Amino acid sequence: GAGVSQSPSNKVTEKGKDVELRCDPISGHTALYWYRQSLGQGLEFLIYFQGNSAPDKSGLPSDRFSAERTGGSVSTLTIQRTQQEDSAVYLCASSLGGTGRGYTFGSGTRLTVV
Amino acid sequence: AQKVTQAQTEISVVEKEDVTLDCVYETRDTTYYLFWYKQPPSGELVFLIRRNSFDEQNEISGRYSWNFQKSTSSFNFTITASQVVDSAVYFCALSLSSGYSTLTFGKGTMLLVSP
Description:
B: four-stranded antiparallel β-sheet
C-alpha cells in the first residue's frame, strides 16, 4: 500500500483480556518495527523484523508480549492478559532495511486497558 | 547504550517567532544517524530529516534548519517564522550504523504555536 496501515486505530479492552494489533507495512519493505508510545515516556522500541532473520525481541517488556510477521509482510503484536500499564499508543514502522534508511510510521493503535 | 535527551518538554510561541528545539545525544559509536520526526495531533510520525555522523553540514529546508555539532553532541532544530500548523510534538532520534537500525528516541518536545 501507499503507507503503513495499522488496525484498529483505537482499542479499549478489559484488564486481563488478550488483544491483537495489526500492522500492514509498505509493500516491499523488508524491515518492520514495533514501538510503544506511553504518556510522557517518548517512544520505546519493542521488536524488529528484518527479512527472514530471527526477530529482535529485546525490547518486549514482558513475556505477555509477542509478535509475528507472516510471509514477510503483515505483522501482529499480541498482548496477553493485558494490564493497565499496557495502555499506550503502539506504532508500527517499516523501512527498506539497511541502516539509516528512513522509516515510515503508521498512525498507531491507541490501546486503553480499563 | 544510546541516549537522546530533549530537555524542553513544551515550548509555546506566537506565530512568526523563531523557535529552536534542542537535542543532545550520547553514543560510543563513531558512525550513527540522527533524525527528527514531527508528530501532529493526528498521531502519525512524519520524517523530517536524517543526518549521518560524518556530515556536519547544517541543512536548511524552507523554514526548517538543523544545526549538527559533534563537539557538543547536539542536533538542534530551528523553525523560522513559526506557523500554527507547526504545532506538534517533535522527536529527535538516533540510529546506529552497525547491525540493525532501531531508533532511540528522545521524549519529545511539544511545540504550541498560537496565532
